[in-house]
Amino acid sequence: GNSVTQMEGPVTLSEEAFLTINCTYTATGYPSLFWYVQYPGEGLQLLLKATKADDKGSNKGFEATYRKETTSFHLEKGSVQVSDSAVYFCALSDRTGTASKLTFGTGTRLQVTL
Amino acid sequence: NAGVTQTPKFQVLKTGQSMTLQCAQDMNHEYMSWYRQDPGMGLRLIHYSVGAGITDQGEVPNGYNVSRSTTEDFPLRLLSAAPSQTSVYFCASSLGTGGTEAFFGQGTRLTVV
What phi and psi, each to the nearest 5 degrees, are found at residue A106? Predict the structure, then answer.
């Protein structure tokens, strides 16, 4: 079956530091890959996505590249801000299935301090 | 835009009680789903629906029932609550297959004592 593995947190960084959150996946088909973000007390919202190999998703300074050869979709940001403090989820949707059936990683909590 | 609306936001139940978590979306999405979020386990799919009148089980369906009589609504029923069902529940909807975005409600925090 499908699975997503992401680095455990919490990750604590100082403002303006470089961020990497690792994500690798296992899937039987050709999945679409997503990063969702959950701010305190809120639901998940889409941060970025990539639907095929070598695609780069980007949004709000975050980016991730779909690497089929390493089955990875690592999230990066060059300079984090306090407002980026949240929980980040890597997820996949198998293209042979439906978008309703997302498979999530366990989430990585990011804390950014001044 | 309301998006995906879940009610209630918080609920405390006694073991054995029943309740329904409500979910409604106003985006005319065909696909809706329910997840539970537990510490260290991410989100796990409980049930999903690909359209009115069609539902199917996800990864952790036991103890939960769903129905989809309209495109807009997708309620989740707990028939006899157990402490193991203490969790945060999220409803989501999306347009279609593959790479389309899922929109999530704000969640229902349920405690079963």
Answer: -80, -10
Give me the pLDDT at residue A96, please: 58
Query: Scanning every residue of chain A, which has its alpha carbon at the shortest distance from the alpha carbon of B98?
Result: A95
pLDDT digits (tens, 9 = 90+) for B39-58: 888 899 999 998 999 999 99
Of A4, A34, A43, the CB nearest to B105: A43
What is the structure's pLDDT at A100?
56
CB contacts of B49 in chain A (<8 Å) are 100
Q: Identify the residue with better confidence: A97 or B12.
A: B12
Is the pLDDT score of A29 beyond 80?
no
Q: CB A106 to CB B45 under 8 A?
A: no
**Cα A66 vs. chain centroid, distance in angstroms?**
11
Contacts of B88 in chain A (CB under 8 A): none
- Residue B68 has a CB neighbour count (10 Å cut-off) of 20
CA separation for the pair A88, A86 (Å, rounded): 6
Which conformational region is residue B107 in: left (phi greater than 0), alpha (psi within -120 to 50 degrees), or beta?
left
Which residues partner with B11 through β-bridges?
A: B110
Residues of chain A in contact with residue B96, where contact means CB-CB under 8 angstroms, are 98-99
Strand arrangement of the beta sheet that strand B64-66 belongs to: B4-7, B19-25, B76-78, B64-66
Q: Rounded to a whole number, what is the distance in angstroms from the first to the last CA of chain B?
A: 36
State the pLDDT at residue A95.
63
